[in-house]
Amino acid sequence: MSPAASADRLLTLDEVASFLGIPKSTLYAWRSMSPKQGPRGIKVGKYVRVRQSELDRWLEEQAEDVEA
Q1: Are 26 and 17 within 8 A, CB to CB?
Q2: Is the separation of the CB atoms in 15 and 52 below 8 Å?
């Protein structure tokens, strides 16, 4: 798989939750907030998916400068 293709890989909410180390229910809670929190999802039929590139973008947004 090329780097561009892997950046646009569609992740399941189980995969996103596992990667972030949070319960899947937290992702659903974030999606129900107004305004929505967490990485933006895409509806694929009845399923929600998150692009790997969107997860990466969202994580960069969350980054804080931490002094050691």
Answers
A1: yes
A2: no
Retrieve residue 45's tokens: 């039929």
Helices (H) and strands (E) in the chain, counts: 4, 3
Q: Which pTM value belongs to this model?
A: 0.80
Nearest to 49 by CA among 22, 63, 31: 31
Digits of tens for pLDDT over the chain (68 positions)?
566 566 689 999 999 999 999 999 999 999 999 888 999 999 999 999 999 999 999 999 988 766 65
What's the one-letter identity of residue 25? S
Largest Cα span, the chain: 45
